[in-house]
Each structure stands twice: as structure tokens, then as C-alpha cells.
């Protein structure tokens, strides 16, 4: 904890040495990144609709697994009850954003858990995105320390919990989800067909 507190102070001091516009971008990114991940989930799902049932299954499981890992991180918080560094670390600079209320515990970082889970889920659904979403997740995690509301070990744990947990959930549920997508594509219900998408085979038949 002492080393994490020292690193927290160093990062926060660095944050205060950066230009105001850079601090503003960090404050925005710490929340806006979640919306970017949400938009990517939609893009990946829409793209997968024209592909195999397995592709759609992973695309749908990615946001679901992210939601599960958010709940998991909240459960960890309720058991560990670690106070926020913006209150607990002596001789630390003031945070760039308002310190969360007492009872909004620090370990692990929910934002980092979501970012880690989303990055892994998106990379599994569309591997080419990995080079984009992995740095996004790391930057989001770092931003939580940069603005002063988390310890470094909070965000590292969040990334690991979210990423590993989401990967295992997608892998473990992929076969079941694929079966559901295949059933939806065989259905006569319009909404189910639209959600599951035409698939590569049906699309190619419609073009001939």
C-alpha cells in the first residue's frame, strides 16, 4: 500500500504539472471512454450480423460479459471497503475531480474493470480492434489515477478482473450463445431475425 500511495502522489503531482487543456481531456476521457466502448459494441454487433452465428454470439456476449464484470467489481468493493486515496493518502495533491463520497469504495476500479472487460470482449469479437481497444483500456485505467480518485493497484486489479473474467465468460458461453443465434435465424419472428442478422449464407443467397 505504501508503494501504491507513493506512486499515486507522484502521478497526481505529474497531473498538476500538465497544461490545463490536458487535464480537461483526462477528465473527459475518464467518462467518455465508456461511451466509446458502448459505440464499439454496437458496431461490432452490426458487423457480425452478416457473418456466422459464432461471430454474432461473441459480439453479443462481449457487452453482457462487461456488465457481469461491472457487477463483480461492485461486489469486490462491498467486501474490501478500501477508502479513496483522495481522502486517505497524506501529503497528496488535491484530485482534479471531486473525490467520491464516503462509502463509494476504491478497490477495484469499476471503470478499469469495465474497460478491461470491454477491450477483451471487443478483441475476441473483432481481433483487429485489439490494437485500438487495448490502449484505450489502459488509458482509461490510468486516467482514474491521473484525476486522483484511485490508487494504481485499484486500476491494475480492475483491468485484470474485468479482462480475465470477461474472456472466461465469453469463452465459456460461446457455444450456448451460438446455438441461440442459430435458433433465432431459423425463427419466423421478424425481430429475432433482425437481431441475429442474415448471416453470410443467407446474404449470399439473397444476392443470387
From the structure above, extract its key features:
0% strand; mainly alpha; disordered C terminus; 77% helix; elongated; 208 residues
Characterization of the model:
With 208 residues, the protein is mainly α. Helices cover 77% and strands 0% of the residues. The protein is built from nine helices and no strands. The protein has helices spanning 2-17, 20-48, 53-80, 85-88, 110-125, 130-146, 152-185, 190-196, 199-207. Helix 2 (20-48) packs across helix 3, helix 5 packs across helix 7 (152-185) and helix 7 (152-185) crosses helix 8 (190-196). The chain starts with a helix and ends with a helix. The relative contact order is 0.18. Residues 203-208 have low confidence and may be disordered.
- How much of the polypeptide forms β-strand, as a percent range? under 5%
Main pleated-sheet profile: none
Structural class: mainly alpha
- Gyration radius (Cα, Å) is 20 Å
**Tally of separate helices:** 9
Mean pLDDT across residues: 89
Spell the H/E element sequence: HHHHHHHHH
The end-to-end span amounts to: 65 Å
What is the helical fraction, as a range of percent?
over 70%
Large-scale geometry? elongated
Given as residue ranges, the uncertain stretches (5+ residues, pLDDT < 50) are 203-208
- Count of DSSP strands: 0
Amino acid at each position: 500500500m505504501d508503494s501504491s500511495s507513493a506512486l499515486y502522489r507522484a502521478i497526481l503531482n505529474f497531473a498538476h504539472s500538465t497544461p490545463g487543456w490536458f487535464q480537461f481531456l483526462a477528465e473527459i476521457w475518464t467518462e467518455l471512454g465508456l461511451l466509446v466502448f458502448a459505440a464499439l459494441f454496437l458496431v461490432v454487433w452490426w458487423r457480425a450480423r452478416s457473418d456466422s452465428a459464432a461471430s454474432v454470439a461473441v459480439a453479443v456476449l462481449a457487452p453482457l460479459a462487461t456488465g457481469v464484470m461491472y457487477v463483480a467489481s461492485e461486489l469486490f468493493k462491498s467486501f474490501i471497503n478500501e477508502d479513496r486515496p483522495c481522502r486517505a493518502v497524506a501529503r497528496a495533491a488535491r484530485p482534479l475531480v471531486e473525490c467520491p463520497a464516503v462509502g463509494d469504495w476504491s478497490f477495484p476500479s469499476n471503470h478499469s474493470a469495465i474497460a478491461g472487460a470491454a477491450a477483451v470482449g471487443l478483441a475476441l469479437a473483432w481481433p483487429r480492434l485489439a490494437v485500438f481497444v487495448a490502449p484505450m483500456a489502459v488509458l482509461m485505467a490510468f486516467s482514474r489515477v491521473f484525476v486522483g480518485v484511485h490508487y494504481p493497484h485499484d486500476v491494475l486489479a480492475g483491468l485484470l478482473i474485468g479482462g480475465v473474467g470477461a474472456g472466461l465468460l465469453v469463452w465459456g458461453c460461446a457455444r450456448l450463445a451460438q446455438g441461440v443465434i442459430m435458433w433465432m435465424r431459423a425463427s419466423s419472428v421478424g425481430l429475432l431475425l433482425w437481431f441475429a442478422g442474415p448471416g453470410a449464407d443467407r446474404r449470399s443467397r439473397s444476392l443470387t
